[in-house]
Design a protein that fits this description.
The chain contains 17 helices and 20 strands. The protein has 508 residues and is of the alpha/beta class. The protein has a seven-stranded mixed sheet. It has a five-stranded parallel sheet with strand order 10-2-1-14-20. The protein has a three-stranded antiparallel sheet with strand order 5-9-6. Helix 1 runs parallel beside helix 16 and helix 4 crosses helix 5. It is globular, with a radius of gyration of 22 Å. Bound molecules: flavin-adenine dinucleotide.
């Protein structure tokens, strides 16, 4: 079994396959594992490159249970309280927490009792929505005929495909700030709540119900530890070994080529960014549904403008903070229309050292700043504007309690959408293909890739979608399908129950 890419998707898949007794080799292009989920060090400060919010840990818990380990013990997960502070440009703030009594009290004070009751009914509604939709997200889809299955009928009761996250929330909340507090999470999918399907109201619910976690040393240590465990289980991970193309016999993948030679295997898993992998590793002539022309027509997520700052002091602000622009909707519209917002942009700042002092020298701290921005576009020249935009963002950070920042910056790294694109991320769309209903479930590239034989997909570009929990799920779904296709009965430590699903004829 050969996996191309040691991102979180590839690593999760490798753990389950190794436990099932399958020999796995991973070829990784860069000099370390983790992909976008990787810690980097500069000037003695350590930063997460990408993910900083780890929520809905249930999937990684089950994967670790399957290999006989405890995810919380192994990964050093630290629950945060509050989850984050959200500051509204329109006035007021909320400390989002899993303590629902505190939440109702805060909401009541901010916007009255009616909205506080709306919050409680939102929680109930989404608890039900998750229960009914879970089975749709944790099992593979192969085509529209799956729509007739029992799981699809169950989810149809709550999917409300005609509604967006935003319009769904307007039923529970009249105050726009609350609608925003329960909907900005669609940014995790790189989408606007005005476009994301209403199913995704569950994202905020998951935070209130299950909390948000940090991992000591950064979320990038999660992938480092997964790789160590994989190696201990016999997985071979070869770094600095970029695959330049797959080798085919007709529609069957039979090998992967690198500058050092060809690797053969009986099955292959691709963890490379989906569109980059399609265009770079598979000839256009072998793809119809995902041809270069069709890839160009798909919708892609937003990108991000990033600042990673090493600071010579500590700030007493929460671990995660979000500033929501006064004109939040206009800000989102700019992203969709490929404009850069210069007036009061929304942003997110992580002050991780308030929880984890291991990331900076004594008395110092790190700040990670993420500004959602449109993906790459010929009308935007980031080389020309990036320093001016950086200055604007530093000023904007005062609204989150970081005054006179310029005087305290010791180390600074800027990443623009163009930089993401140069790191093998198609259009710099860091959250991959967008998650509209037209690109989800059976309409997303399938885990057992529908256009070629012996190729499986993992990562944010396949089902169920982008974000660490769903990416780990893609690793689990592909591992299940590979075992089923190889006739292997995995010994997954008592959680083989989910393996029963895969034996149903519709998955093959
Ligand atoms: C700025 C940012 C913030 C994010 N924040 C969050 C968050 O807070 N919470 C959350 O859940 N998610 C977040 N995400 C989204 C997502 O969880 C991560 O991007 C995640 O790392 C994606 O995982 P993946 O497995 O799809 O692929 P990647 O992490 O991209 O891994 C792919 C791997 O394939 C390798 N590769 C590429 N080409 C080749 C080749 N030709 N040969 C061999 N190897 C190759 C790459 O080097 C890489 O190691 C964020 C992403 C970004 C960028």
């Amino acid at each position: 079994m050969l996996i191309v890419g040691a991102g979180p998707g590839g690593l999760a898949c490798s753990l389950l396959l190794a436990k099932a007794g399958i020999k796995v080799t991973i070829l990784e292009k860069s000099d370390g594992v983790g992909g976008r989920t990787r810690v980097f060090e500069k000037d003695n400060y350590r930063f997460d490159t990408g993910p900083t919010f780890f929520h809905y840990t249930e999937i990684i818990e089950e994967i670790f249970q399957a290999i006989g380990l405890d995810a919380h013990d192994e990964l050093g997960l630290i629950p945060l309280d509050p989850n984050y502070r959200i500051i509204f440009g329109a006035g007021g703030s909320l400390d989002a927490t899993t303590n629902l009594d505190s939440m109702t009290e805060q909401i009541s004070q901010l916007c009255g009792e009616k909205e506080a009751n709306g919050f409680l009914s939102y929680i109930e509604d989404n608890r039900r929505k998750l229960r009914l939709s879970k089975n749709c997200l944790n099992t593979p889809w192969s085509g529209p005929s799956d729509l007739l299955s029992r799981r699809a009928l169950r989810v149809s009761k709550v999917l409300r495909p005609w509604r967006s996250v935003s319009s769904d929330l307007s039923k529970s909340f009249t105050d726009e700030r609350l609608q925003l507090a329960m909907s900005f999470q669609t940014k995790y999918l790189g989408m606007s709540p005005f476009q994301a399907p209403s199913l995704f109201t569950i994202l905020a619910y998951l935070e209130y119900e299950h909390g948000i976690f940090h991992a000591k040393g950064g979320l990038g240590t999660i992938t480092e530890k997964m790789a160590k465990i994989a190696r201990d289980m016999g997985v071979e991970i070869i770094l600095n070994e970029p695959v330049t193309k797959f080798i085919f016999d007709g529609k069957k993948v039979i090998g992967a080529r690198t500058d050092n030679g060809d690797y053969t295997a009986d099955r292959f898993v691709m963890n490379v960014d989906f569109a980059t992998g399609m265009k770079g590793l598979i000839p256009d002539a072998l793809r119809r549904r995902w041809s270069d022309e069709k890839l160009e027509q798909k919708s892609y997520s937003c990108s991000t403008f990033m600042l990673y700052l090493g600071i010579d002091k500590k700030f007493d602000t929460p671990h995660h903070q979000i500033y929501a622009s006064k004109d939040y909707q206009g800000n989102l519209q700019d992203i969709t229309e490929h404009k850069v917002t210069w007036d009061d942009p929304s942003l997110y700042v992580q002050n991780a050292c308030v929880t984890d002092s291991s990331l900076a020298p004594e008395g110092h701290s790190t700040l990670y700043v993420l500004v959602p921005i449109c993906n790459t576009h010929p009308t935007i020249n980031w080389k020309e504007i990036k320093h001016e935009y950086r200055d604007l963002i530093i000023r904007q950070m005062e609204k989150l309690g970081f005054p006179n920042l310029n005087q305290h910056i010791i180390s600074e790294t800027i990443i623009t959408p163009d930089d993401w694109a140069s790191r093998d991320i198609y259009k710099g769309a860091v959250f991959n293909l967008a998650h509209g209903l037209d690109q989800m479930l059976w309409r997303r590239p399938q885990n057992k890739f529908e256009e070629l034989n012996q190729l499986y997909l993992v990562g944010g570009g396949t089902h169920p979608g982008s974000g660490l929990p769903t990416i780990f799920e893609s690793g689990r779904i592909s591992a299940k399908m590979i075992c089923a296709d190889m006739g292997v009965e995995p010994d997954w430590n008592g959680v083989n129950t989910w393996f029963d699903e895969i034996r149903k004829p519709s998955y093959n």
